[in-house]
Amino acid sequence: MTGACADIDAAGYWSVECWGGATYDACIRFLNEDPWHRLRTFRELLPNSRLQMLLRGQNLLGYRHYEDTVVNRFVERAAANGMDVFRIFDALNDLRNIETALRAVRRTGKHAQGTVCYTISPVHTIEHFVDLAEQLVEMGADSICVKDMAALLKPQPAYDLVRGIKQRCGEDVRVHVHVHATTGVTLVSLMRAIEAGADAVDTSISSLSLGPGHNPTESLVEMLEGTGFSTRLDKARLLAIKEHFATVRPRYAEFESNFIGAEAEIFDSQIPGGMLSNMESQLKQQDAAARIKEVMEEVPRVRRDAGYPPLVTPSSQIVGTQAVFNVLMGRYKVLSGEFADLMLGYYGAALAERDPEVIAIATQHAKKEPITCRPADLLSAEWDNLLSSTNALEGSDGTDEDVLTYAMFPQVAPKFFSTRPDGPKNLTRQTPAPVPAVIGPEPVQTPVSYDVTFNGRTHKITVKPG
Amino acid sequence: MTGACADIDAAGYWSVECWGGATYDACIRFLNEDPWHRLRTFRELLPNSRLQMLLRGQNLLGYRHYEDTVVNRFVERAAANGMDVFRIFDALNDLRNIETALRAVRRTGKHAQGTVCYTISPVHTIEHFVDLAEQLVEMGADSICVKDMAALLKPQPAYDLVRGIKQRCGEDVRVHVHVHATTGVTLVSLMRAIEAGADAVDTSISSLSLGPGHNPTESLVEMLEGTGFSTRLDKARLLAIKEHFATVRPRYAEFESNFIGAEAEIFDSQIPGGMLSNMESQLKQQDAAARIKEVMEEVPRVRRDAGYPPLVTPSSQIVGTQAVFNVLMGRYKVLSGEFADLMLGYYGAALAERDPEVIAIATQHAKKEPITCRPADLLSAEWDNLLSSTNALEGSDGTDEDVLTYAMFPQVAPKFFSTRPDGPKNLTRQTPAPVPAVIGPEPVQTPVSYDVTFNGRTHKITVKPG
Q1: pLDDT score, position B452
Q2: What pLDDT, on a 0 to 100 scale, did the predictor assign at position A428?
Q3: Could you tell me if B139 and B164 lie in one domain?
Q4: Is B334 within a domain?
Q5: Worst-scoring range by mean pLDDT, A143-152, A214-223, A456-465, B157-166?
Q6: CB of B128 within 8 Å of any CB in chain A?
Q7: Chain B environment of A443 (Cβ under 8 Å)
Q8: Which residues form the Pyruvate carboxyltransferase domain (chains A, B) (predicted)?
Q9: Complex ipTM value
Q10: What would the pLDDT profile of B45-91 be if each residue is shown by its tens digit?
Q11: Domain boundary among A344, A377, A410
């Protein structure tokens, strides 16, 4: 990425999302690269850009809730290392899981963007999303992001939602719209969002765009000609960035998804592509691949029983796995620990009432009571423990950044700290691997003669194929 | 394709484009398949659908102008074999090259769609395209198609163009919009075209969509929700068609283009992707690959000198090749025969005045004078010659259809007629080549018996794995 930074820095972007989400995990799990070093590199190479990150609220970049001190420390260190814009979301849209992180960002003087996760269900309305946006503004958010991770935001709702937020919160409240391209409709949705007053929309450079990713930046720029709207982007810079990544991308061909065209059936199934392939592989492991249709019909039921959570990490995996369990072993005969936690409120509140019978099963299964408080309120101070555990690890360097790495990835961090001095690994293929025309050696078809020395004497031995 | 026809026939499409363009050429050149047999197969398998074809006006499906009798005979045979809708265009938008075919379609009672090729240049205006549409309606066209083969039609011009045609020609004149997805903006253009009153827009099923192809059908259907517009398409049928072609497409993986994402820079260079790769390969053959930037700057000059033709087959190849010649050998030092013909009017009229100096060079080079008449007016009756030439070929069957095949593809037809009895060839890989986790034979797990000859005597020897 470093080779494109000079062009990115001068292209005119409002911000550059370059950290957080799964990038931290990928750095330490696969690349032997310190994510904090990466952040400082971006800060150095993008001196004129706002750096932006995606933060999973009280989960930070990990997969559980953290106590407030850890959240505060993470935000403070990210800001100190160069982060400018924190886009903060919660998978259940439970704003109590966003509040600590948002206030921490405000204390650093950086930009705190409150996020509404968009989804479709019988209980999710434009009105509800606008309410959430209003509460985020009241909480102190500097701007609002509408996050459509599953590409479900159609043009008309995009217009209604952005217009609704502007009308309720004020025309001067910045609204950013983040969509994926998966279903093929969302560039049209961005056009309508812009007409409704959106201040920024998220895209990616064309050579890394489309499929499960984002819409192409250059197409957005061209699309606006003659509409009265425009971007401030420099087309020559965009072309240079495009060409850079067009060269890079083929080296990662083995990591490409099998995505073809567009997946508009997500609108009906409510099952994002990544979730579907997860469920398929779970079924395959149980020799039950043929039951995928049953599982796809079970997902909306499980989602209803859980109070219609948006399907995004981690709720998509939790709901999907439980649907597989229900089909293979009978409905709610077996519960995953995570699904029990979801039903009992340990991830936060749901929009709709959860099914009381399933709550009762979850209570029995998990041997704990449902909660209605903010999940993190149940956690006791943990920083000192994390600090001493981290300092005990070979290769840890005593910084708060290392403590945070260990806190979020306790399984992966010890190995990473110990191998960190070796430096980052390059996982690309410099040239694409050739596909062999013939797999393995040709089978032997004719008799083969060997000279075999046996008890000191050499014999000519001929062997016919077995 | 036959496996998807039942679903296609019941899906609710206004028409199914399934013949013409390059499909005829591909049938006889690569597939050893009679294109007329293919047409009759579609007619049989799609009894409730309008079959549609793309016809290059006076060029039919070939690469030169044909005398009117040949054009009339082609249209008559296509209609008799089952074609319903003829979409007729000319690469230069010279309507005199469309008229004979259009009148021939009218005589058969089938649907004659007059086509306007969309392009961008200093002389091409919405007003001009609307004028063309009006002339086509006056000529007897049953409907108008706006054909955007290079994906240059942006949302605002799409609106203005469709609205302009409707206002000038009447709201009841059907307007169809055909765009490619190449630049990434055109689904938005279709939305705006629909808002302007377009009656039909062209898409392809998602598993065959995007890249240099079309926008995904299913995305269009979903996009319209809540907008007041809708299609009559059956989503369950679309899903079945999608899944069918998602299985078929990987078998043709070796024929895929290297297209990634979107190519918005076409708006500036005016050079469609296919034209660019043509020029690159021409330069490479001359060991001059490094001069591609000079050629790209030369293309707009050559296009200006030729009176700003739209860049579509064959004008794109003619202009591109001349630009390569100009860079390698000096401007207009060497002319291709086709470029001389283009400059002298032998492909038809240009919108802007052609450069008089280049016309003079072309006159000298081709040893013929510029013309202003309809090019086909210079041709003398040719059917009888074509008939006797065809009948002299081994394997020809004496039908008008065979004469037309020979007329359009005189180099390819003789071989095709002689091999036709062998039937169509399948060029797919039936199953994708498996990517082996380990390259090499499976380890031996069970005892294997061998016949071993040792000092002239044969023994049965059984070996257990070590």
Answers
A1: 58
A2: 80
A3: yes
A4: yes
A5: A456-465
A6: no
A7: 441
A8: 1-239
A9: 0.85
A10: 999 999 999 999 999 999 899 999 999 999 999 999 999 999 999 99
A11: A377
The label of the residue with tokens 């399907």 reads: A311
CATH number of the domain at B328, please.
Answer: 1.10.472
Contacts of A208 in chain B (CB under 8 A): 261
Tokens of A77: 């260190």
Is B121 a residue whose pLDDT tops 50?
Answer: yes
- Residue B236, token pair as written in the block: 């369950």
Chain A within 8 Å of B15 (Cβ-Cβ)?
no
Q: Tens digit of pLDDT for each residue in A138-164?
A: 999 999 999 999 999 999 999 999 999
- Give start and end residues of each alpha helix (H) in A173-272: 186-195, 217-223, 235-248, 266-269
Q: Which residue has the higher pLDDT, B442 or A133?
A: A133
Q: Band the pLDDT of A166: cuts 50, 70, 90.
A: very high
Instruction: Find chain A residues with C-beta within 8 A of B155's C-beta.
Output: 191, 223, 226-227
Parent domain of A330: 270-377
What mean pLDDT do residues B106-121 have?
97
Which residue of B lies nearest to A187 if distances are taken between CA atoms? B188
Sheet holding A85-88, edge to edge: A16-20, A51-55, A85-88, A111-117, A143-148, A174-179, A200-201
Picking from B255, B279, B314, the residue at the C-terminal end of a domain is B255
What is the pLDDT, as a whole number, of residue B276? 81
Beta-bridged to residue B156, according to DSSP, are: none
User: Which candidate from B154, B264, B454 shows the least CB-CB separation from A216?
Assistant: B264
CATH of the domain at A44: 3.20.20.70
- Looking at the fold, whether B172 and B51 belong to one and the same domain comes out as yes
Give the mean model confidence (pLDDT) for residues A183-205.
97
Which residue has tokens 């089978």? A443
The pLDDT value given to residue A22: 87
Strand partners, B85: B52, B111
User: Residue B432: is its pLDDT beyond 70?
Assistant: no
Contact criterion met (CB below 8 Å) for B340 and B362: yes
Q: What was the pLDDT predicted at B255?
A: 84
Report the b/e string of A412-433 with b at 16+ CB within 10 A: bbbebbeebeeeeeeeeeeeee
pLDDT at A434: 44
Contact B338, B302 (CB under 8 A): no
Contact (CB<8Å) A185/B435: no
Mark whether B196 and B312 lie in a shared domain. Answer: no
Both tokens of residue A168? 């309720």
CB atoms A441 and B441 under 8 Å: yes
Whether the CB-CB separation of B299 and B271 falls below 8 Å is answered with yes
The pTM of this model reads 0.88
Residue-wise pLDDT for B301-339, tens only, equals 999 999 999 988 788 889 999 999 999 999 999 999 999
C-alpha A175/C-alpha A224 separation (Å) is 18
* Long-range contacts at B254-261 (CB < 8 A, ≥ 24 apart): B254/B429, B257/B211, B257/B212, B259/B182, B259/B211, B259/B212, B260/A206, B260/A207, B260/A246, B260/A249, B261/A205, B261/A206, B261/A207, B261/A208, B261/A209, B261/A210, B261/A216, B261/A242, B261/B184
